[in-house]
Amino acid sequence: MDFHVELSIEILSRTPAVLKAWLLGLSDAWVTGNLKVTDNKGEASWSPFDVVGHLIHGERTDWIPRARLILSGQGAQEFEPFDRYAQFQDSQGKSLEELLATFAELRAENLAVLRGFNLGPSDLELRGLHPELGVVTLSQLLATWAVHDLDHLGQIAEVMAGQYAHAVGPWKAYLGILER
What we know:
- It is built from eight helices and two strands; from the N terminus they run αααααααββα.
- A hairpin with a 3-residue loop joins strand 1 and strand 2 (about 135).
- It is mainly alpha-helical.
- The chain is about 55% helix and about 5% strand.
- The protein has one domain: Four Helix Bundle (Hemerythrin (Met), subunit A) (Up-down Bundle).
């Protein structure tokens, strides 16, 4: 599928409601539990609580700030590095309910900004400079934003399923989510 801003907004606009419906009201064992020790890159996995905090940090410091930089007309400006682990400090002392509300508010604001850009095809080809990946286009940034949401929704499912990895007994052989 080719990139279209409107198609990305379909995903981006639904993520807060998906997370709220999925996580709000669950016991702490589900939302803070993290029995899956590492991900496929060998890094420690994150609990659903951690993921929501990470998404908040992205709303504040990644997607729209980088889009604004690309659209500034100053050529391929280098992005500020993104702290993938900021949520561990930023979320301390907050409830999941607070995090979900903050995420929904920030996402709504950012989507209003995105819509307000009134992007045309030439805008989507404008470039920025990622500190690790090099030159990227605005369309790649915005496509990544949508896929980033989907990636973290999958991560939440994997970590939550991992809580019952031993409890399912021999059925584990049929549950691909437990093998990823």
